[in-house]
Amino acid sequence: MPIVFFYHMYTADVILRYFEAGNYYLVTSSPPSIAMQNNFTMLLVTVPSSVTALIMNIINAFKYNTFKEKKILPVNRIKFYFGFSLIFLVALILVAVHQLIKYYATASGDGNLKGTATVMTHYITALFINITPFFMLFMSKGFRNEFILFYSPLLAKKLKMNSQVIVP
């Protein structure tokens, strides 16, 4: 997907630019039209993703009572999934707002705002990359057990005795 969405970057010139307001250097594309295309492409991804997640969370909220009444899943697990969905939705909305700010900064020529937003991109990316594996471990007991069995032989022996996880 990135190859298709960011095809325009293959011929773009890249420059190192100093931002006085933050006292740092950033790598940026030299024609502003390339930066506008990048920001617009990210908006095309983040805004629909946020809207889709919002719709799905609304559906989940309505189905929550059904699951709770029919006792299909334990209430604690449902609450955890619902909480995770809300956290993910807020994160998607923040990324979409961030992309709107970058788009505005590029369109208006506000270099300092664009520089600050670009630096924030690195923090947001690092946060998502580092938090996602932990969410996966917390979400699924089966996945967590497999993770422990694979990476920790000492814990795996104890886990094998206390669970029904079968290791080939």
Explain what you see.
Helices cover 76% and strands 7% of the residues. It is mainly alpha-helical and 168 residues long. It has one domain (2-162). The protein has a two-stranded antiparallel sheet. It starts with a helix and ends in a 6-residue tail after the last helix.
Features:
168 residues; 7% strand; mainly alpha; two-stranded antiparallel sheet
What is this entry, summarized?
It comes from Rhabditophanes sp. KR3021. This protein is mainly α and 168 residues long.
Helicity range of the residues?
over 70%
Mean pLDDT: 76
Tell me the strand percentage band.
Answer: 5-15%
Structural category: mainly alpha
- Per DSSP E runs of 2 or more residues, the count of β-strands stands at 2
Strand order of the largest sheet: 1-2
Counting structural domains, the number is 1
Mind summarizing the main beta sheet?
A: 2 strands, antiparallel
With helices defined by DSSP (H or I, 4 residues minimum), what is the helix count? 6
Radius of gyration: 22 Å
Order of helices and strands: HEEHHHHH
| Cα-to-Cα separation, first versus last residue | 36 Å
Q: Quaternary state, please?
A: single chain
Gross geometry? elongated
Poorly predicted spans: none
